[in-house]
Amino acid sequence: MKNEKQKPKKALRTAQYKSTFLTPTEFLARNGKTVYISKEFHQKLSQLVFMLGGGNLTLADYLYNLLQHHFDDYGAEMRAMYDKTKKPNF
After folding, report:
1. Which of 1, 64, 67, 74 is the most exposed place for a label (fewest CB within 10 A)?
2. Is residue 14 part of a domain?
């Protein structure tokens, strides 16, 4: 019984992951900036994008989606922490 409840929940999480992170964007990498990541992360992400992206997704798309999700989820907290560090203008 417990296993039957977990299947739809897992399928829903998988569908949410695909729609959130494995969706092509309009972002063009050549219009962005260079960032450096570890070789290990680059290999893992490149393989993930290649295998799950169906040829329609770039590493830049995946990273854009990942960062957009992060800013959407934690934007308020980041702004609050940032505001606390601001020095007053004189």
Report:
1. 1
2. no
For 51-68, how does the pLDDT look when each residue is reduced to its tens digit (9 = 90+)?
A: 999 999 999 999 999 999
CA of 16: how far to CAs of 4, 42, 59, 77, 82, in Å?
Answer: 19, 23, 19, 23, 30
**Locus of tokens 């980041």:** 78
Question: What is the count of structural domains for the chain?
Answer: 1
Amino acid symbol at 8: P
**Dist CA 17 CA 48 (whole Å):** 13
Which residues span the domain enclosing 84?
Answer: 56-89
Taking the complete model, does pTM exceed 0.90, yes or no? no
